[in-house]
Design goal:
The protein is of the alpha/beta class. It has three domains: 273 residues, Alpha-Beta Complex (inorganic pyrophosphatase (n-terminal core)), CATH 3.90.1640.30; 99 residues, Diaminopimelate Epimerase, Chain A, domain 1, CATH 3.10.310.30; 114 residues, OB fold (Dihydrolipoamide Acetyltransferase, E2P) (Beta Barrel). 42% of the residues lie in helices and 20% in strands. It has 19 helices and 17 strands. The strands form three sheets. It has a five-stranded parallel β-sheet with strand order 2-1-3-4-5, sandwiched between helices. Strands 6-7-8-10-9 form a five-stranded mixed β-sheet, with helices on both faces. A five-stranded mixed beta barrel has the order 12-14-15-17-16. Helix 12 crosses helix 14. The protein is globular and about 75 Å long. The two termini are 32 Å apart.
């Protein structure tokens, strides 16, 4: 199809590679994973010596899914029965810090610790464990700052740039766990006992949750996972996945995973302990799975309510700050009532509304301490900015990626951080791409043909932006209608009908304040996102506005 060919050329995909791009194949055991051999040898020795092992993970969806993949593999393929531990976002810090290492040693007395989704920069803690006779294997994807060189194996492609090949450095922890287990299964000759299908489905959820670049390997993970998730026999393999996903007969798309599966799983660690998430994905008891899945959804509803309050208060604070300093590149907002576990998604909303990066802080459990999260806007490299701030001693802890980062500060540092927000330039991500890309005009294809194109190009995210369809010079043919959720006073979107030549198309716009500017009989240039929904055996197409402007002169 011409549209697909044009898109592929813009992405630098040659005609010889386009079939592979559209139908990526996942072969995890074929990727040359750094230090996998060292990790395999150490685990084999642990098995032979019946050593006690602890898997130390993280409290977000990527941490939950990656720990679950490892646990399932060891139970299915080996005699190893590791203990496992997740930090609690409410009381602990991210990563294996010294306090966490001391607690873990006292509780489990392990001979070997596997850090998954953390550990790369835990140099002090890994060295401390080593001094007490405890080895550490790190399986992680975070950038290196204070590399834990005393780990017996550093299974982090970012720590081995000279030897890593392909797109391994783009994997999240769940994808890395999948590849790591595939290497172990091949080395130990136990591939037939491993439930690779369930591991792939779980890895796909973790990959979408962590919003990693959708390079070839991550596209293969997500495409493979979605195909399996939508295969009834595959989905039946895992009680947790069956109960966590809506049972409404609709296909599970990338969007549905991102909006209906990931947030409830993340809600555990945001508002409580994340441990039930691992139980959900590793146990086979349906009653237990249903109970945990229900708890996930309940917590997610609470998270939404809390987040709405934080966003409303944050918007008010942000407006006052910008009245004094209109050119602020990053907003630093704080409130003693904000829950640190919820400020991350709230920061995303604030960044979108004010079109600049945002950091939100809430009171930590320790007196005089605040914990928060930041989200970047467009090309801002918030992670690098916070690293500079940390080096200047303006925050106690900071770490993360270009798009999202976490931090801890003392009360007196909040003003210093706000001063840095005024004075310290925000570095930019060289390879930044917008969240969506116009790939053609509505008039080029029929709606069902556009649907096929978009399905072929999916999944979408960093490195493969969401396609948008352009409709120039569309006429608003009637007054728009407010769409409200049951019991809500404020609309969540506006719906309107536009005429395009002899065709009428219905669209919704979720940016409520901007959509309120629509006027009947006026002309607009629209850029739309296409989604589909099946109902009673039919497929319906929905058009959502991503950009609306008066026609170009």
């Amino acid at each position: 199809m011409a549209v697909v060919s044009r898109y592929a050329r813009r992405r630098g995909i040659t005609p010889a590679k386009i079939r592979e791009y559209l139908n990526p194949k996942l072969h995890p055991s074929r990727y040359p994973l750094p230090d996998a051999g060292k990790a395999s040898a150490r685990l084999l020795a642990a098995s032979q010596n019946q050593e006690r092992i602890v898997i130390f993970g993280d409290y977000d969806a990527d941490g939950i899914t990656s720990v679950s993949i490892l646990l399932r593999f060891f139970h299915e393929c080996t005699s190893l029965r590791p203990d496992w531990k997740l930090p609690n976002r409410q009381t602990d810090h991210y990563d294996l810090d010294l306090v966490a290492a001391e607690k873990m040693l006292a509780e489990f007395q392990p001979a070997l610790v596997i850090c998954i989704d953390n550990g790369t920069n835990a140099a002090e803690s890994v060295a401390w464990l080593r001094s007490r006779g405890v080895d550490t294997i790190v399986v992680d994807h975070h950038p290196c700052t204070t590399l834990a060189t005393t780990a017996v194996a550093m299974v982090n492609p970012k720590a081995h740039q000279a030897t890593a090949t392909g797109d391994l450095a783009d994997l999240c922890a769940a994808g890395l766990a999948l590849v790591f287990c595939a290497h172990l299964a091949q080395a130990w000759g136990c591939a037939k006992r491993w439930d690779y299908i369930t591991a792939t489905m779980i890895a796909g959820i973790g990959t979408l949750a962590d919003a990693v670049p959708l390079s070839a390997i991550n596209r293969a993970v997500v495409k493979s996972a979605l195909q399996l998730i939508n295969t009834p026999a595959a989905r039946q393999r895992c009680a947790g996945l069956r109960t966590l996903m809506p049972d409404d007969g609709q296909p599970m798309t990338q969007r549905r995973i991102e909006f209906e599966v990931v947030p409830p799983l993340n809600a555990l660690g945001r508002l409580a302990a994340a441990d039930p998430g691992v139980l959900l994905l590793t146990r086979d008891d349906m009653a237990e799975a249903e109970s945990i899945a229900t708890r996930c959804r309940e917590l997610n509803e609470s998270r939404k309510t809390i987040q709405q309050t934080i966003v409303a208060q944050g918007v008010e604070q942000g407006r006052k700050l910008l009245e004094k300093h209109p050119a602020l590149p990053v907003l630093v907002l704080a409130h003693p009532d904000w829950l640190p576990g919820v400020v991350g998604p709230a920061a995303s909303r604030i960044a979108e509304q004010f079109e600049r990066s945002a950091i939100l802080l809430g009171l930590d459990h320790a007196p005089g301490k605040w914990k928060g999260s930041g989200r970047s806007f467009q090309a801002d490299n918030l992670g690098a900015w916070l690293l500079t701030v940390k080096q200047q001693g303006l925050v106690e802890r900071a770490g993360g990626h270009a798009a999202a980062a976490g931090l801890s500060v003392r009360t007196e540092q909040i003003c210093q951080l706000r001063t840095a927000a005024r004075d310290l330039p925000m570095p930019q991500v060289y390879s930044y791409e917008p969240a969506y890309e116009v790939i053609g005009k509505l008039s080029e294809l029929r709606a069902n043909e556009w649907m096929q194109v978009i399905e072929a190009l999916s999944p979408f995210g960093s490195g493969n932006p969401m396609p948008a369809i352009a409709i120039p010079d569309a006429v608003l043919c009637q007054e728009p209608v407010k769409l409200k959720a049951n019991g809500a006073n404020e609309p969540w979107a506006w719906k309107a009908d536009f005429t395009v030549g002899k065709q009428t198309i219905s669209v919704i716009w979720r940016e409520v304040e901007k959509a309120a500017q629509w006027r009947k009989d006026c002309r607009y240039d629209l850029e739309l996102e296409l989604t589909t929904k099946r109902f009673q055996g039919r497929t319906f197409i929905n058009w959502s506005v991503v950009r609306c402007a008066p026609p170009a002169a």
